[in-house]
Every structure is written in structure tokens, then in C-alpha cells.
Amino acid sequence: MVQRIRRWVLEERRLEFPLVGVTLAALLGGLLSRFLAPSLAGVFWAIAYFAGGFYGVIDGAVALRNRRLDVNLLMLLSALGAAFIDHAEEGATLLFLFSLSNALQTMALERTRQAIRELLDLRPAMARRLREGREEQIPVEEIRVGDRLLVRPGERIPADGQVVAGFSAIDESMLTGESIPVPKGPGDPVFEGTLNGYGALEIEVTCPASDTMLTRIIRLVEEAQAQRARTQQAIDRFEQRYAWAVLGGAALTLLLSGLFGEPFDRSFYRAMTLLVVASPCALVISTPAAFLSAIAAGARRGLLFKGGMALEALARVRVVAMDKTGTLTENRVAVQAIHALDGTGPDQVLGLAAAVEARSEHPIARAILEEARARGLSLPEIREVEARPGLGVIGRRNGDRIWVGSPRLFQQEGIALPPEVHAHLKAAEQAGRTALLVYDGRWRGVIEVADRVRPEAVEAVRALRRLGVEVAMLTGDHPAVARAVAGTVGIARFEAGLLPEEKLERIRALAREIGPVAMVGDGVNDAPALAAASVGIAMGRMGSDVAIESADVVLLQDDLRRVAEAIALARAAMRTVWQNLAFASGVIALLVLLTFGVGLPLPLAVVGHEGSTLVVVLNGLRLLRWKGMPATDSASPAEGSFPQVPSGGSAIRLPGQPADRSHPGR
User: Fold this and answer.
1) Transmembrane region positions (predicted)?
2) Global pTM?
3) Which listed residue (70, 147, 160, 323) is catalytic?
């Protein structure tokens, strides 16, 4: 009970606004009692000082225990000094406005933590577990890896898992910022806290509650809001020296005024006013007001910044280096073109290849089968399938053999390639694609497959260039593939065939040549480069755990356009910080000049001081309404596929981003 009250009063500061009300009531009572009952004025001033200085005394005591001098002590000294020279009403006014300002700051900065509360609210309290054909309601804390859960339409997913039965569309907007529901079916991942759409789903839990995506996001945001940026650290160090300087300045003002014959009360009053106007409240709050708001705004849009340092570094970035596989591309092989030969139709070429590859789990085989299913092709029955690892597959139909594979398969079989096939192979190599040959005694065709370029990659590169940021691609893939991808997305600077340690060295070289570097990656091999870059940015949904842990910024939605958005938000945060610092410094300078020039009254000094602090806080809170970069045209060559190489014959062009056909009937 005592601990709960202590947390309620001291940590959660639930008494701040009630005490402000008590201070105001006591202040008004004291002012009225001077005319109606002078003997009671002292009681009202004592109440005002106690209520108005309650949290200031606590914070000041903590600072003194840590051998620090802070703003609270300066304010308390000024209020006590006012009472000492019989200006208790002005000291009470000071404490009322100071406590009101602090309460408003607490309320305002509490809004920056709303993102965490919204994420916590996503967690359902109960789940439906399926056991031996029966459904039982259990608290989510009892869910274990391997449990089968039933999620009905309109319910939130209670744990990270994989769909084992059913089809639906999941609203993942609170986690990723993506407003369009994501189609889900057997084999697809689902995440705790996301909202199920129209269909019932049966899911298998794949992750303990302590390591779900939602839990990790909350942990990252909490750590980010607790971390101090370099600018904030510098201001905190400056605050200590500055506070001592203000205290020394007040003492010097009192001493020099006395030496020049000024009455003690007037000199002391001016010194107390100086303590107020020169106090660095607005300076100290300038950075956290902006950075906490930016971190919260980013979290709502699927951008996780691991603290103010990440924001600060990202705002200075001049070049973005990107990995290829899984970053610029989807890390998903797809059929890009079919070149039919010898009078064969494209669907017949695809059908033969799919029939032979039907039992294979190779990514290229899956891509061919997926395209055949998308076209609704009926496949001929193939018997006696013989796999040649690394080369291809040979099947038999009606006694006739069918070869589907790379050129090396035919070299091994002693089958010569005609000039027309050689021409298609050369074109595929130049386009950075893998060619699959189909032969059954006659050359039926050439199928080109490649990793699909993300449809938003071109727009992402353009958005970065509009921000004045250069883009480079670093990949361990073959130079021909790298050249094709770079040409598709519009990246002029790229390097291929790099090992992880070589990527790291290229990052350092870019930093020396151009300036601060942000590295975008998703794999384990990207972790060293992510850690070495000025800012590491990880693709959160498809990224490896190592990459996410090594990064400073995590994109919860695998959308490259969010990189430019993150940089724009970081720059907006830094602009706000510098605006706040300039404004706060200007107000302090003006109030100090007025104190010595025209003898600024203490109440007006308090209004100017606390008013500037609130302006700084509100300016920082504007970032909570940040809506992202303006939308741009997303036209892109090849619609996400590699550049199409012109060819003769009956070659057909396939769209690089076909509609998702993985869920029949959707």
C-alpha cells in the first residue's frame, strides 16, 4: 500500500494539478486576506509555498543528493528570497506559475508516451485455445509455443504465429503504419495485437510472449525514449555550469549593487529576479520536447528510432547505402519472361516446365509453379522424375524425356545449344536473370526468372534524392545482377561481389568521401555494415534478428519509402530543436536585459520565463502531428522487375508485380 501511494505521488505525479489548484487558491486567499484579515495572510502564504514548492523540493533534493544544481533549486531560492524581503505574494506567484508550468510540461510530454500505451492496449486479455477438438478460453499469459489458437473475425491476434487454416485480411496498421489490410492464408505469419478481418483463422503460436513483435516494439520505444541524444547530453552538462553561473551572477549583482549604494531590498529583489529570468528551463526542455515527440510520431508510422542519438545522426546523413537482396528486392524469385521457340506457345512452355518441376522445393521451381497456377494451366502428368542437383530436372512423359534446367545440364547430357538459345542466354545474363531451358527433343523455350525488385524502390530512391541524399547499392551478388537492379531503380553508384567485411570498408569509404552514411539491410551479413554506419536501418518484418539488433532505426513495414520518411522526420526534429534553443536563448537574453535595464518585476519575470518554457514544449509537440512526406508519383520502369531485354520470336513480357494469387478465391 505504501509503495503504491509512493508511486502514485512521486513517480506518476498524480498530485501535480491538485497542488497547482491549492497554490492558486492560497495565493488568492493571501491577496484577499491582506485587505480583509491581515493576520491570516501568513497562513495562506505558507500553504501556497508548501503546495507550489512540493515537487520542486523533491526534485531539488534528488539533484543535491546527486551533487547537482538544477532549475528547481534556483526557483525555490528566488521564492524564499522574495519572502525574506517581505514580498511573499510575489514568491507565491512565482511558485504557482512554476508549478503550473511543470504540470503542463508533464501533461504535454506524457502525450509522447501515448504511443506505448496505444501499443499496450492492442494486447487482448484472453485467447481461444484449441485442444483435442475443443475450444477453451485462457488468459494470454498461459499461451505457449506450439498452441493452436482460434481467432474469430473482428478479434485481435493474441500471439505471434503462423496461419494453419482459414483465410482473412489482417489490419496491421498499428504495427507497420500500412493502412490496407494484409491478406493471410495457411503458412502466412500473423502478429500479436493486429486485428483480424472477415474470416476465422486457426494459428499455431511460434513465439513466446516475451519475444513477440509487439513486445519488441514496446521495448525498443521505451529504450529510445529513455536514451539521451548528444545535444541533450551537452545541454545537461551545460546546465550544471550555467546554474552555478546564474547563482554566482545573482550574488555578484547583490554585492555590486550594494557597493554602488543601492538599498538592500532593491538589490536583493533584482538578484532574485535574475535567478528566475536566467534559469535555463526552456533550454533544458528544448531537446527532449522535440525528440520524444518525434520518436512517438515515428512509432505510430512504423518507424522505430532507438533513441535521440539515432534521430540526431539520421538528420545529418548525406548518403544511404542499400543492400540488394531483401532490401531493394523482395528476396522472392519470380518468372520475368518466357521465350517460346519452334512454334510452341508460351503457356505450353510454362506448363511443361511446371509439370517436370512439380515435386521440387527449389525456389526457381516454386516460382514456375506459382506462375502456372496463376495462369490456371492444367499440367501434364510426368513420371520418373530425375533431379540433377545444381543443374535441373529430367522427367518422362509417354516414354519421351523432357529436360528443364540450366545450360550446364545440356552440356553434361551432350545436347548442343542452337544459336537462338545462345542469344536468349546472353540477353538474360545482361539483364541479370537466370535462364531455364525447356527441351523434349525439340527446343521448346527459355524461361527467365529473377528476384523481384520492390515496386516502391524507384520512388524510394527518388524521394532520397529530393532530400539531397545520395544512394549507393552494396551487394555480394554477381555484377550483372547488381547492374540490372541498379539500372532498374536508378542507382548510379553500386558495387557487387562484396563480402560482409568488404561492405563495412565501403561504408567507411563512403563516409570519408561524402559524409555520414545510413546503411539499409535485412540479413545477418548486413549486421557489421549496419553497426559501422553512422545510422543502421533494418527492414523489420523480413529482417534477421541480428540485423534488427545492430540497427539504430527499424522499419516495421518493409517499404523502402520509409527510409526517406525517417530522414525527413529526423531533420524536422533537429530543426525544431534549433528553433527551441534559439528562442529560449533569445528570451533569456531579453529578460536579463530588462531586469537590469528597467527593473523587471518578479511576477512579469516569472510569466516571461514560464511562458517561454511552454512555447518550447508546444513547439516540440507539433511533431506528434507529423504526417510524413508529401505523396509523389510512383511510376517506375518495369514495375518492379528487372529491365526487359528486347528479343525476337514469340517472347512475352510478364508484369514484375502480379496480383497476389496465393489465396484462391480471394
Assistant:
1) 15-37, 43-62, 242-260, 272-299, 581-600
2) 0.69
3) 323
